[in-house]
Design brief:
Distance between the termini: 149 Å
Number of helices: 1
Helix content: over 70%
Structural class: mainly alpha
Shape: rod-shaped
Largest sheet: none
Strand content: under 5%
Radius of gyration: 44 Å
Length: about 100
Amino acid sequence: QFKESELMDSIDDKLNQLDNGMTKAENQQKATDAKNENLEMQADENEIDGKLNTLDNAFNQAAKKEDKVTEQFKESELMDSIDDKLNQLDNGMTKAENQQKA
């Protein structure tokens, strides 16, 4: 009976060791899974950040082009206004010359 009792204690110890080992392995697996999930989330965030930066750059370039077009349009309007004033001046001078001739 003593040997059987020792044998049972030994079996219980081995089962406890096995149980502890399995619990430790499960905890390590959970920690590894959490780390992997975190790394995947960081990779996704980096990809999103990269795409947002690309989008920001595209918007900035579009804004610069719009500003340039607006400035060119203003310059064009100014040139048209100057041309109109020169034409008015030319017409006025021609009218004055014609009145002097008459």
